[in-house]
Records
---
Amino acid sequence: MNIFATAGAATGLVIGIIIAVIIFKFTNTNHRIKTEYDERQQVLRGRGYMYSFYTMVVYECVMLVLSIGRITLPAEDYVLHYLGIILGCGVLGVYSVWNDVYWGLNNNRRRYVIIIIVLAVINLLPVIRSFRAGEFLKDGKLSYGFVNLSCLIFLAIFPLTYLIKKMVGKETESED
């Protein structure tokens, strides 16, 4: 990766953080950046953060062992680092959905759903471009397109978890 690509990625990250702050202000009903939770939600989210943290630690330990053993995976380094982050966030998200702590007291659910759909479309476009241009794999390694694909998978996991939770809940109710 050359210096221009690195500068572009860093600039994109900073712009993404700024946009995220604006989105949080827009999606919360009281226009605050911070989402508010009740006591039960705070306790469960804390447990979710703990599971997420340990998931990332185990992932990084595995990556460290592979690195020490000079075992290379068919992915660029930045893809592997991103996967660690997305894995930890996925654990937190699935845990939160499963334990009903995903909506804060001041969230506008409709706005969040719209933003998730927009994010999915934004991430779908580079995936399509990467496949069409044959750049999904560069020099036999997963690259930028895979980052967007993993983000799409990440975004799809939450509604799937919610649907599974609903189905399990209906089966439990029918057994009673």
---
Amino acid sequence: MPVRIERDKVREMFSEIAPTYDRLNRLLSFGVDRIWRRAAIRALLDGLSFGTPARLLDLATGTGDVALGIQRRIPETPKIQVVGADIAFPMLAIARRKSRESMAFFQADALNLPFEDASFDGAIIAFGLRNLEDRREGLAEMGRILRPGGRLVVLEFGHPRGAFGLSYYYYFRYFLPFFGRLVSGHPTAYEYLPSTVYAFPDAESLSAMMDETGFGKVVSRPMTGGIVQLHIGERAAGA
């Protein structure tokens, strides 16, 4: 049964779990989420041609882990600006406490970003695309704010298969919601997580969606046995 994504409910839920969000990410992934994020950051930055000045967007930044990781990878220069955007203000408040003064964070709806056309050289969204009311519209909006040739990286949960996939399913469907509820105190947030993951398009479908919304040279690769998928695309000229 399809999961109904409602923007206001998503914002409210992530606002409520913000205080325990980082700790649960580490615990529930056994720390592997840091490896996934570092791989996504490398995919965004390696070989990327920067404009002058350059701007990079971390969309659905949450508590800012990816934005901070990008900042650590690039030279300390005012010519490169890292921007984080998220719909949940309490998440952004934590990100701002963790960040340098030079970083900018905005509360923004991913379907209606407050940025000009072609104003970013690269964008990344980690574990946030599945939370949008309209994923296709969200991808199109990311394409709008990227310059032609700008790079988009999407990091999302995948659908592992075989015996490993079955073991992962039971962990993700039963243990994770129980432990997440115990630590966060939120009654439904960590039941919502597996529900949206299993309703999310598979890697081939997401790659096709990126292609249909104006991204070329789309590639994807699984990580950790397919638990997550890394998608990389380039905004096509004239898209």
---
Amino acid sequence: MKSFSIKGTEWFADDDSLVGLLGEVDVPEGDRRGYNKAEYQGRKVFIKSFVEKGLPGFIRNRVASRGKREYDLGMRLLSMSIPTPKPLGYGVSRMGSYIIQELVEGETFISAYAETRSRAGLLVGLAMLLKTMKFHHVRHNDLHLENILLVDNEFYLVDLHKMRIKHSFTVQDEASNLSHALVGIYGDLNDEERESFFARYGTPKIREVVEREMDRLAARWVRRKKERAFKETSKVLLRGNRLYIAGMEDCAAGSFVDLIKKDRKVRVERYTDHIRKIYRDKRRLERAWRAHVVLAYMGLGVAPKAFYLEMPHGAAQGYIAMEDLKGTGEELDRYLDRRYNSLSENQRRLLEDRLSGYFFMLTRKKIVHKDVKACNVFVPTNGDFMLLDVEDIRFRALDEQALKRMLVQLNTTIPKRVGTRARIRFFVKFTSTMKVDKRAIFSSIVKESLRREIVYEGVDGLVREEW
């Protein structure tokens, strides 16, 4: 390996051709990472920087720089026939390091997964990659699906500086690779796809361990996103006293139209281009904003889109500006009151299928609403359902108690004309794959529902009905 110095950085490269390239291109810099694609004499390369800060970073950079580490690990992966962009060299400067690689142009696994109509081939390829990593004792430690590239149907590992190649490979090492890779898509997979994936991987018994680890990772991810909801990040922008969801800075600038709702918890106002939900309790405001931010990171349109948060200041209460759903649909209780009698039997069955499927999707995504009254479920004219009152959303698994509470709330806030058979069909469809005592839960829901009256908001106002 040849060494040379350019602009205060000591470079180590496999051949002299990189000297001219590094003398001409801008070496990336940034707060943590910088990236640059370059072409020199027909050769395409990718340069990544690792910026170190403080004394610990300075020491690490001198003892074992991340650029050199990624170079060495890349060479070892290639010797095992595990595809990764070929390392060409690395550099070390006073407060950072760099790696140079051949530029590999492909798409991330998660992008391909989102675009494909047939996931089976992608899941097989992922299972075989993870199986190969297990065989060679490779623990990646950051194996989210943006760190797997698809190039001509081959799976490439990238971002290797946290990776370890171990002498022995434990169940915990396997679970780490599997859980990091699967956690982002596992909620989308049905039981058949899950079973097939672990069968291809070759160790079906590890599934339970991996699922527990994914629960831990998902909870940690949500906690971190909530902690960052009031800081400037790639998803949240701070502008004066406002926190914007990135890309929404020019939204919600209209003028006041009218008051929609006012009670002891909130005041809801309509503006010409948005809704403002003004919270009397700062804790509810913060809880709602954290939930909006987590949903924005998840990329799920399961609630009205938030534009920005106005922080409380002085005597002014804080509020969240969000999209106005007026004219795009109505709440489930009003929808059923207005339309249910005119729906054909096929249309009613389709509504049951869509609604049960929607709640099942939320369950797989570990999204639970603590107040699932029909007035908090929005039925759009186009698209899927939405949850209102975002401050009541929690990101956790749906346990039996939450399931009972949710179904009692829903059961007692929809019109009586939605008959017993329709309610039973919805319950059966929603809980079909849940590993719970369905008979006991159904009995409990019926008993608790019969203790209450049916109360909902109809097209002509509040309606109370006896069973």
---
Amino acid sequence: MSTTVLVTWATRYGSTEEVAHAIADDLLKQKFAVNAQPMSEVGSLDHYQAVVMGFALYMGRIHKDARRFLESHRDELMHRPVALFALGPFHAEEKEFVEARKQLEKELAKVPWFSPVARQVIGGRFDPQKLRFPFSFIPVLRNLPASDARDWDAIHAWAGILPPALVSALTH
């Protein structure tokens, strides 16, 4: 029997969804059965042995759909392995990644019952032309140049470590 994995995401501008689909494709290549869908559309986790969830950090906070997902699926998430990726930094600068990891840990401390078997901070994409309210009214954000700090090689490498991490957690 194949392990069935839900790859789910919360996104505002689509960047996290693109990463989630890349991870889902990598898991399919590793012979997992995979379903990919937005967190806002997930009803139950009953059919999944494992979950990979992704969201962006906005102003140091977890995306609201991800917070709702954690709250509404708490019992189910406590009984299956979960891997987590968070998009954060707009630039490929280590200091931004360090800060994003601190922000993620601070946010995860608010859900002490949640213990992902793997977690990764990934660079994000930023396009000031796509900003929506309230961010569209922040002059410093509107004046930043567009950027894409997603490192696809690193994303695929992280997806490559997920199979043993998820399967190992299933057998314990």
